[in-house]
Amino acid sequence: MKEGLVIKSTGSWYTVKTAEGEIHNCRIKGKFRMEGIRTTNPIAVGDMVDFESNKDAEVIVGIHDRKNYIIRKSSNLSKRSQIIASNVDQAFLIVTVNYPLTTTTFIDRFLTAAEAYRIPVRLIFNKIDRYRPNDMVRLSELKNTYEKIGYKCFEISAKKEIHLDVIKETLKGKINLLSGHSGVGKSTLINAIQPGLDLKTGEISESHAQGKHTTTFSEMFELDFSGYIIDTPGIRGFGTIDMEKEEMSHFFPEIFKISKNCQFHNCSHIHEPGCAVKAAVEEGEISLSRYESYLGMILEDEDNKYRI
Ligand code: GDP
Ligand code: ZN
Question: Domain 245-306 in CATH: superfamily?
Answer without folding.
Answer: Probable gtpase engc; domain 3 (1.10.40.50)
